[in-house]
Amino acid sequence: MRSLFALMMVFTILLGGCQKMTESEKQALYQEAEKVVVQHFKEKFELDVVVTSKELLPEMAMSQIGLKGHVKDHDDQTFGISYDYKKKITKNLVISPELEEVIKAKGHDPYAK
User: What does the radius of gyration of the chain's CA atoms come to, in whole angstroms?
Assistant: First the structure.
């Protein structure tokens, strides 16, 4: 999980000055991404999650927002996920071993497409 976000940070540092989006456009995308990610976990894994951070990745590199969070009331069950705001899909799910165990206990495969 750390390597994925480390890579995102490198892209941010290298291309951070290339973003042309206004702050209000960014906030609208953040709200959309959070709503989609919360719904994704609810529908796919039957879990209520809290998004704790959002980061818009450089537009020149990709049209994605990186989100981090955890299962509600379980700070140890963490995740990282990307939301592609042009394709309107989630991808690149990274989960903690604790969250993986919970998802599997519910009868779901966290790595199924």
Answer: 14
3-state helix, strand, coil in the chain (%, to 5): 45, 30, 25
- The helix/strand/coil state of 82 is strand
- Of the chain, the end-to-end C-alpha distance in Å amounts to 19
Q: Which helix (H) or strand (E) holds 52?
A: strand 49-56
- Give this prediction's pTM: 0.79
Give the DSSP letter of residue 112. Answer: -
Residues 46-72 have pLDDT tens digits of: 999 999 999 998 876 689 999 999 999
β-bridge partners, 95: 79
The string over 1-10, giving b where at least 16 C-beta atoms fall within 10 Å of a residue's C-beta and e elsewhere, is: eeeebeebee
Tokens of 37: 């990610």
